[in-house]
Structures are given as structure tokens and as C-alpha cells.
Amino acid sequence: LGEASKFLQDALEIAYENNLLEIIVNAKIQLAEIDLLRYRMTNESILIANALRKIEDTRQLCIEQDYRLVLIDVFILQGLLLSMN
């Protein structure tokens, strides 16, 4: 998970620099999923908070950009994270 997270963070930086919104949204969702997996392995509640923050940022981007199909995935993941907290 560490290598995947690093790769996604790098991709996210490049996407922000180039205003590539689809990559930003997908990377944030995947980073939140990694936080969820890490939480399931370690039970560290800070990871749920981190994932929720990423999902909230992603939700805002999806609303602003009218990414409705992605927004469905965001709501599902947000609900899952909230149920675990």
C-alpha cells in the first residue's frame, strides 16, 4: 500500500499542477480507499478521519464539475467510512 500511496500522491501533485480534475478525483478516491484498508489492518481511527477528509474534498469537486457518476461512488464510500467511525 505504501508504494501505491506514494504513486498516487505523485500523480495528484501533477494533476493539480495541470488542472486535471478527473485524475484528481480518481486519485483522491483511491487514496481514501487505501486509508480504509490501512484502518482495517491497524484499527487507527485517524485513518478514517483522513479518508473522510479526502472524500469530502472529492465530493465538493464532483459537485462543482457535475461528475454525477463519480459522485455516486463518493457517496457510497463516504457512507461506508461513516458507518465504521
UniProtKB/TrEMBL annotation:
This is Uncharacterized protein. It comes from marine sediment metagenome.
